[in-house]
């Protein structure tokens, strides 16, 4: 894998890495980890919402 960021992304990455006192590689890997963690949580929430929507699509028999 060989990511090819745009020039503006490279500059932003360079600046952030410099601010954090780490290399650009470490900053990029941290961003990937953060994205994967956030989207995993969002995927779980979407799955739960779909399951609940399917379960409660029709009112319970006692309410009909």
Largest sheet: none
Low-confidence stretches: none
Spatial extent as radius of gyration: 21 Å
- Summed over residues and divided by their number, the pLDDT gives a mean of 91
Question: What sequence of helices (H) and strands (E) makes up the elements?
Answer: HH
Strand % is under 5%
Based on Cα principal axes, name the global outline: rod-shaped
Q: Helix- and strand-based class?
A: mainly alpha
- The count of DSSP E runs of length 2 or more, i.e. the number of strands, is 0
Please describe what this structure looks like.
- The chain is an all-alpha fold and 64 residues long.
- Helices cover 72% and strands 0% of the residues.
- It is rod-shaped.
- The model has no long low-confidence stretch (mean pLDDT 91).
Topology:
Elements: H1 7-20, H2 24-55
Helix pairs in contact: 1-2
Structure in a nutshell:
72% of the residues lie in helices and 0% in strands.
Which features would summarize this protein structure in a list?
64 residues; mainly alpha
């Amino acid at each position: 894998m060989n990511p090819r960021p745009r020039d503006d992304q490279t500059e932003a990455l360079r600046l952030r890495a410099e601010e954090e006192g780490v290399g650009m590689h470490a900053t990029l890997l941290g961003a990937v980890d953060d994205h994967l963690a956030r989207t995993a949580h969002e995927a779980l929430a979407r799955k739960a919402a779909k399951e609940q929507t399917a379960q409660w699509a029709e009112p319970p028999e006692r309410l009909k």
